[in-house]
Amino acid sequence: MKRKTGQLKILVIEDNPGDFILIEDYLSEEHASLEIKHAKNFKDAIEFLYSTVFDTVILDLSLPDIKSPEVLVKEVLALANATPVVVLTGYANKDYGMKTLSWGVSDYLLKDEINASNLSKSIHYSIERSRVQRQLYESEEKYRTLFESSPLPMWVLDRNTLEFLSVNQAAINLYGYSREEFMQMTVRDLWVEDEDRIERTVENNFHDFFVINVKHFTKAGKVLHIAVQSNPIMFGGREARVTLAHDITEKLKAEEKLRHSQQRFKALVQDGSDVISIIDENFHYSYISPSAKNILGVSPEKLEGTNVFQFIHKEDRPLIEDKIKFIGKVKSYQLPSYRHQDVAGNWRWLETIISDLRDDPAVNGLVANSRDITRFKLQEKELRESLERYDIVAKATTDLITDYDIEKDSFQFSNAIYDIFGYSPKELDVSRSWWKQKLHPDDYQRVINATSEIFTNHKKLLNIEYRFKCADGNYKYILDRSYVITDANNKPSRIIGSIQDITERRQYINAIERSNERLREIAWTQSHVVRAPLARIMGLIDLLKNQRNNLDNIDEVIDNILNSSEELDKVIRKITNKTEEEL
User: Fold this and answer.
1) Within 13 Å, how many C-alpha atoms sit on residue 519's CB side?
2) I want to staple 44 with a disulfide (CB 3.0 to 4.6 A). Which of 39, 56, 257, 482 is the partner?
3) pLDDT tens digits, residue range 161-216?
4) What does DSSP say about strands 164-167 and 475-486: parallel, antiparallel, or unpaired?
5) Furthest-apart CA pair in the chain: how many Å?
6) CA 86, CA 441: separation in Å to the nearest integer?
């Protein structure tokens, strides 16, 4: 009974009709469905092979139109493409049969030994061998295509020497070596460091798959971080490894940046001085940074879930509630400074910036960045009280208060400058040169010399009187009492002064001095000019009193007394006139 082995298309190339009939009978005996074509020579075979695809070609090596068996076999193999070719020969020489196999035929049979069974077996074996070889070839082609077209660098190494046996284009592109250069290298030529660690890994996994991270040099000397996956294979009969090299340099850089970013986040948020909190739509704390412990004295866990407003001073709540109306309208805004209660019940002044990040799934809330400004608030209060005292003092006195910044060459004046000197704000200049221009010429050098001692002799107190020009061109006498403020290097930085208008006092003193001068002149007149005529009168009177009876020229003596009296009268009237002029 014939076996149902499937339909076969077979081309028999045989010039002997008897042999063809015998082959046809053998095949028909073994196959239920069979289509046989007969080519009597090579020319006919060409026509059949061009027009039809066969499952097997049975070839007689003795054809009339080709004398060389080798040429005949190679030509038929080329025309048959992947179709298996079974050679029929009358040569019993085994070496010759093996030689035909080396030319590429699937099998060879001796005509004298063939029968239906071994012919059918040879055909089926040849077909199956061809199918397996075709699958193997396709698999190899797929592997080669995957290997060559892989976007990741790949290579094959000799497992014993670590020489490169094959590299793909991606490896050539990444490392910069040509294929020929790779073939002259071992993978050790790429290693940057840790040679002992890599050698141990290769040795311990000689027959196993392993993964390792290494550093490689490129041809240009650039260092790459590579994640290596290596698997043992047989390659061309050699123990080898196929290796996939994944360049993770940029990944590691990104991880390093992420790590730095996380460190910055930790430094800014977790270890920072500001309190960073996330507030939900109901104004409850969903997160608060550890710095709350330093500022408010309470652990963040105890604040999470509590309402923000329960810790805000009741006087400040209306301001905050009025400001939060902007939520959803602007992305970020600053709250007015407010008081927040700490764990001890004290009030801490906070300054907060709100950022609306409710649309960010990583946050899903309002981010509040709060800074403790309690110390600044206390300083501000002290400064405000100090300024208030200064304003009261400035208003209570008519003195001019000056503040001169040496580095900026800039004066600041109290409002008394308008009353004392009559300058309008437009006429007022704040530079030192303007002030020097208003000094009286007779006082200029004295004032400059006195102020220079601030820098040359480190003088701290300055007390000097001089004249200063007013807006109307007149000069006023002023008393300038100044104190020098120095910086950390003991260098003068500011001069704070109090200037008093002493014009009236100076005028009064000048009047007294002039009166004193008049009195001194009168005293001198009395002591010198009055004494002379008075002495003459007194002498003449004594002469008349004691020697009146012996005088012959009494009339002359009386005339002299009269003349001296008139001279004395003139002196007295002169003194009287000077006194009246002074009064």
Assistant:
1) 7
2) 39
3) 999 999 999 999 999 999 999 999 999 999 998 899 999 999 999 999 999 999 99
4) unpaired
5) 222
6) 134
